[in-house]
Write a structure and sequence with these properties.
602 residues; mainly alpha; Na+/H+ antiporter like fold; Rossmann fold; seven-stranded parallel β-sheet; 27 helices; 73% helix; antiporter activity; transport; Na+/solute_symporter_sf; transmembrane helix
Length: 602
């Protein structure tokens, strides 16, 4: 009789993941929660079917490789550089504080210092999937605050990659506990051993990186080009899969690095080539499938009884994830002289753990640095934190008005940010005191386009922007720019809004736009306010707040697609303009009838 344990493990794993994933999604949770629950159901610590843990672990290793390959594929240095002044110190500071807190919790619970450090690093890393979902649901992904959160997460990922290099070396030579014990007795041998091991590991990483970059940057595009010319999607997918697994295996076999690190480097190589988008689209279904098995295999190691035997440690893990991490992130954002809103977005978005936590824990467990029980703690922490994350995120954002009004220490930090902005505005004045014909809030893609169009007609607007670096850059280019939050009346008064003809709001966040309109009407009740709206559903609130003209992204997209289609069909220009005008008029009337009167819609 054939051994079908592999097939039954895969079949039950996928089936259970599908069921629990659907249930989780139905009740508003991340599917990751469902995948972990599926693993618990298939594990040896629950009644019923028991999957083959060894086989599941090997399949999960492929999932780790593909996950890390995807991270490397979508890693863009420019995204990090755009928010480097806050993301780099922020992520480093938060990770350090979370790790120290976890060391304290582990020590109180009777665990070793080494185990506390590894657990601390694991819980300091948030899930990319969960963060992106909560930012998209709250429509903050494309805002300045969302960009900071994404950059912060990129730095956390880089920290984890570096830790993956050092962990095997620590396990082979000595442990952090030996270092502490040796230091207590005045010795240095263990410390030298760790430093030597870490140094060797870093040298191996440099050698691996040099070989991968020098050889791979030429070899990988060459191979993909040859395969692409065959015009076979199957062969192209196979080529990408072979490269990801081959480089990961070579990194492990030749340099002793983790396969996860090798896969990350392989992803970076492909990501820098012109085949990155095609590689991502072809490998995505396969990556998602094996990623599901990865989370299922993690859940299979969950032991409820062992978790209940260490309630203090479980409570400590949850406190670090749900309280220490968000509070540390919030304070660091304020200390970096950013707004309370940005601090709350970053704090709420990072109050969870996910895939990177398990990848790091698996490497540590395989090297004997943490026991299997630590996996159960991380699974419990992930299920609870991911389930609560949307609630935590929304509750934190709702606290913004109360925090700014009642928390004196926050107001003090806010004044530091204001003083910093005032210093910038004083060093490089935003104008000669004369009011601007137009004030543009925000200098993102939409704001830049508006400013460029105004410049073509010799109109020099005043730009209000919350990014200090952007304001300095605009000043260097001789443009009028003011650092400040346009939701605050005093900033609008400094911009001479009471004497301006119009205000153009380009920020993508709905709640921020509403607050800006209300503040502008307070300063200048007769100001002409033009604002963007991503969805038609936002029009009523914007109209009620006092917007004069609302330009809808949905309408612009519909009109643009219709115009392109008619041009492609050879329709005369006059007829195209007539039809586009009709679309705008019909859509505008639909919005106005839903809103109640004749406010303009574009």
């Amino acid at each position: 009789m054939h051994d079908i344990s592999l097939i039954t493990t895969i079949a039950f794993g996928f089936a259970a993941a599908l069921f629990f994933g659907l249930v989780a999604k139905k009740i508003g949770l991340s599917p990751i929660v469902g995948y972990l629950l599926a693993g618990i159901a298939a594990g040896p610590h629950t009644p019923g079917f028991v999957g083959n843990i060894q086989l599941a672990g090997q399949l999960a290793e492929i999932g780790v490789i593909l996950l890390m390959f995807g991270v490397g594929l979508h890693f863009h240095l420019k995204d990090l550089l755009a928010v480097r002044n806050i993301a780099i110190p922020g992520a480093l500071g938060q990770s350090t504080l979370a790790t120290l807190a976890m060391v304290g919790v582990a020590t109180l619970a009777g665990w070793s210092w080494t185990q506390g450090v590894v657990l601390g690093i694991a819980v300091s890393v948030a899930s990319t999937v969960v963060l992106l979902r909560v930012l998209m649901d709250s429509r903050t992904l494309e805002t300045a605050s969302g960009h900071v959160a994404i950059g912060w997460l990129i730095v956390e990922d880089i920290i984890t990659v570096l830790v993956l290099v050092v962990l095997p070396a620590l396990a082979v030579n000595t442990s952090l506990d030996n270092v502490a014990l040796d230091a207590a007795h005045g010795g240095t041998e263990a410390g030298k051993g760790v430093l030597w091991a870490a140094g060797i590991a870093i040298l191996k990483l440099v050698a691996l990186g040099a070989i991968v970059i020098v050889v791979g940057s030429r070899f990988v595009p060459w191979v993909l080009m040859r395969v692409a010319r065959v015009r076979s999607r199957e062969l192209f997918t196979l080529a990408v899969l072979v490269m990801s697994i081959a480089i990961a295996t070579a990194a492990y076999a030749a340099f002793g690095a983790s396969m996860a690190l090798g896969a990350f480097m392989a992803g970076m190589l492909v990501g820098q080539s012109k085949f990155s988008h095609q590689a991502g689209s072809e490998l995505l279904p396969l990556r998602d499938a094996f990623a599901v098995l990865f989370f299922v295999s993690v859940g299979m190691l969950f032991d409820f009884r062992s978790v209940m035997q260490t309630p203090l440690l479980l409570a400590g893990v949850l406190v670090v994830i749900l309280m220490v991490k968000p509070l540390a992130a919030f304070l660091i954002v304020l200390l970096c002289r950013h707004t309370v809103h940005t601090g709350l977005v970053v704090a709420g978005g990072l109050a969870q753990i996910g895939e990177f936590s398990f990848i790091l824990a698996e490497v540590a467990r395989a090297n004997g640095l943490i026991p299997t029980e630590a996996y159960s703690l991380l699974v419990a922490g992930a299920i609870i934190s991911i389930s609560l994350n949307p609630i935590v995120f929304n509750r934190l954002l709702a606290l913004e008005p109360w925090i700014e009004k009642h928390a004196s220490w926050v107001r003090w930090l806010g004044r530091r940010a204001d003083e910093h902005g005032s210093a910038i505005n004083a060093v490089t004045p935003h104008g000669d005191g004369a009011p601007a014909d137009a004030i543009v809030v925000g200098h993102g893609p939409v704001g830049r386009a508006v400013t460029e169009v105004l410049g073509l007609f010799k109109v020099k607007p005043l730009i209000i922007e919350m990014n200090v670096d952007t304001v300095s850059e605009l000043h260097n280019r001789g443009m009028r720019a003011l650092y400040g939050d346009a939701t605050r009346p005093e900033i609008l008064k400094e911009a001479c809004l009471e004497k301006a003809r119009c205000l153009v709001i380009t920020t993508p966040e709905p709640a921020t736009r509403l607050a800006m309109i209300v503040a502008a009407r307070e300063v200048n009740p007769g100001i002409h306010i033009l604002t963007r709206a991503r969805y038609v559903s936002e029009h009523a609130a914007l109209r009620e707040a006092g917007a004069s003209v609302i330009c809808c992204d949905e309408l612009a997209g519909a009109a643009g697609l219709a115009e392109a289609l008619l041009i492609d069909q050879g329709v005369p220009r006059e007829q195209i303009e007539r039809e586009i005008g009709r679309i705008r008029a019909d859509w505008g009337q639909t919005v106005l009838s839903a809103v109640g009167d004749g406010s303009a819609t574009k």
